[in-house]
Design goal:
234 residues; alpha/beta; 17% strand; globular
């Protein structure tokens, strides 16, 4: 039986080559092949303009087709950073999005989200959050695939604290209405958890490389802390 391939999906406005080192780390930790979905700021701009994940999902689907043709992959593990986790949840859905049904749950064996703003209870009316909550609430395909939602507690939001704490407070309040809590500096723990998923918390990891080297995909040692061993190991 062919092993699954890892598809790495970057966060909002990301440039996919920035994740190439992370893809190699994932290969080393999992023993599986890993490729990045080639998202660029242009794709995110199109999605924002249309208020639809359609342009992002098209890139994801095209990457699946490429991996099937070039790598012989039939099953996939989605590793999704930040807003990429919302795109991935929509990709799993069997509901039409801009007239297209992706039904990724039929060929995805696991979804791992890293600091994704799932915002199950509260949060902004952003099109990705809104559509993911409407079309794929929680973990609707848990009978067919494994869901893992990884959060971090590294920065305490504090309106009166230092620069990092004040910045975190504003971001946490945006995503959860409660700024005075722990999170990864951008997404609070409660917003990064997904009902029905295996929710995990790592310590001392920041949201992205913008906030420091110790981010979710920053090194082999960090990835080993959250990688589910039942999905493959070195």
């Amino acid at each position: 039986m062919t092993q699954p391939a890892i598809l790495l999906i970057g966060g909002y406005n990301s440039v996919w080559p920035a994740y190439l080192a992370a893809a190699r780390h994932l290969e080393d930790v999992s023993g599986l092949r890993a490729i990045g979905v080639p998202l660029l700021p242009w794709d995110w701009w199109q999605a924002e303009r249309q208020k639809s994940a359609g342009p992002l999902l098209t890139k994801l689907w095209d990457t699946v087709l490429w991996a099937r043709r070039k790598m012989g992959a039939r099953q996939f593990i989605l590793v999704a950073h930040s807003a990429g986790g919302l795109v991935s949840r929509l990709y799993l859905s069997d509901q039409p999005i801009e007239g297209q049904v992706y039904a990724g749950a039929g060929h995805v064996s696991a979804l791992i989200t890293l600091g994704s703003p799932h915002c199950a209870e509260t949060g902004p009316d952003w099109y990705l959050i809104r559509d993911a909550s409407r079309l794929a609430p929680g973990a609707p395909y848990a009978d067919r695939l494994s869901y893992y939602a990884i959060a971090s507690q590294s920065v305490q939001g504090d309106e009166q604290g230092g620069l990092a704490e004040r910045r975190a407070f504003r971001s946490y309040r945006y995503f959860s209405n409660n700024g005075a809590q722990l999170g990864d500096g951008v997404i609070p723990v409660d917003a990064a958890h997904l009902p029905g998923a295996a929710n995990r918390v790592v310590d001392g990891v920041v949201h992205s490389r913008k906030y420091g080297a110790h981010w979710y995909l920053g090194s082999l040692s960090i990835i080993r802390r959250w990688w589910p061993q039942d999905l493959g190991h070195e």
